[in-house]
Write a structure and sequence with these properties.
The protein is 28% helix and 28% strand. It has 120 residues and is an alpha+beta fold. A 4-stranded mixed β-sheet has the order 1-4-2-3.
Length: 120
């Protein structure tokens, strides 16, 4: 069974905080996608991208986002897992189980963790 956990410091924006110009928002999405992909380098990797996986995404922040914003904030990070060839795609047929969680942390201590596990 394959298992990979990555932790990224800082917090991806939520839809409610995307008041920035589209170009600025696009740069942030690219930054989180690249950070997710690069964090997989040097890690235990599957021999082939996973055809079936479950992913648990946890946001550690001082304020709790609503569920829709929580899910949206992980989009670029999951795309980075696809770029790193950890998962074959981000479709529901590949990511068969998704969990999005939030945990309170002190201000300015924001981070996210992503746990990827293979499914038989």
């Amino acid at each position: 069974m394959f298992r990979l956990e990555i932790i990224l410091f800082g917090l991806p924006s939520t839809a409610n905080s995307h008041k920035a110009h589209w170009a600025i928002a696009g740069k942030e999405r690219k930054r989180w996608r690249a950070a997710s992909c690069l964090s997989c380098l040097g890690q235990n990797r599957p021999p082939e991208p996973l055809d079936r996986a479950k992913i648990t995404c946890t946001r550690y922040s001082a304020s709790e986002p609503d569920f829709d914003n929580l899910v949206q904030s992980f989009k670029s990070v999951i795309d980075g897992l696809k770029d790193a060839k950890i998962i074959k795609d981000d479709k529901s047929s590949v990511i068969v189980e998704r969990k999005y969680m939030w945990e309170k942390t002190a201000p300015k201590q924001g981070r996210i963790s992503i746990l990827v596990e293979s499914v038989a």
